[in-house]
Design a protein that fits this description.
By secondary structure, this protein is an alpha/beta fold. Helices cover 37% and strands 24% of the residues. The longest helix has 23 residues, at 162-184.
Length: 185
């Protein structure tokens, strides 16, 4: 679907550690994000894909259950179950869990993502710790009717607090926008 819908795909993907599961943290700009995560998982990480979605969004697209999607309902008791399930997924070395800690779809032009604390709670429950990989996706049309998709990833090595991960993700996002501007020149 990606190849048919985009004029071109550019992927700058860092290698990940084969012996670890991957927590893939993405900017959530469209309904394409899960498909992009699945593409990364299959093509680059070579691991089984899972994605955490808001319950109301998954209810509208139940077919995504078959593709590794499961739900979370923020501010409810069932959120604890989703956190435990996420940690269980990440305990297997052959898994990728994609999540969008900002919790909602936001404009490509959004800056300063704010992460919910669920990411910190998931990581507290994981043993061993997964590899954390940031994923920024940007699109540009240039002079074509269909867009070009730019996919970039970076491994995160640092403190596991939600605020530190959020800060590093925001820096990477700004760096990707800067790289995007260089591509336009």
């Amino acid at each position: 679907m990606l190849r048919k819908s985009f004029h071109r795909l550019y992927a700058e993907v860092e290698d990940c550690q084969a012996e670890k599961s991957v927590l893939l943290i993405g900017n959530h700009f469209s309904w394409w994000d899960g498909f992009i995560g699945n593409y990364l998982s299959y093509r680059y990480f070579k691991k089984k894909f899972h994605v955490m979605m808001l319950r109301e969004q998954l209810a509208k697209r139940m077919f995504l259950n078959k593709a590794g999607a499961f739900s979370v309902e923020k501010s409810s008791r069932s959120a604890v179950e989703s956190i435990l399930y996420s940690a269980e997924i990440l305990s297997g070395t052959n898994n990728v869990l994609m999540m969008f800690p900002q919790g909602s779809i936001e404009s490509l032009y959004h800056r300063d993502f704010e992460f919910a604390r669920g990411i910190e709670r998931i990581l507290e429950k994981c043993d061993p710790k997964p590899e954390i990989v940031f994923n920024i996706n940007l699109v540009d049309y240039f002079s074509r009717p269909s867009p070009t998709l730019f996919i970039r990833t970076r491994s995160y090595q640092g403190d596991l607090s939600a605020k530190e991960i959020e800060s590093a993700f925001n820096r990477f996002h700004l760096e990707c926008i800067g790289l995007q501007n260089e591509k336009l020149i």
